[in-house]
Amino acid sequence: MKKNVGTIDKVVRIIAAIIIAGLGYYYESWWGLLAIVPLFTAFIAWCPLWAIFSFSTKGKE
Where are the alpha helices (DSSP H) in 1-61? Predict the structure, then answer.
């Protein structure tokens, strides 16, 4: 599994996860659990969607 999520992408994913979880909590909805997806992909630095399209925000190694 080659890492394909860069630093800025990680920050955006973490912020999106916080917002999604917060909205889920505010509206008392199970949809807030979707925050797990961007949070997980940010912490492992690998996104399956980016891998399918051979896209990377990591930059040159």
Answer: 7-26, 36-44, 48-52
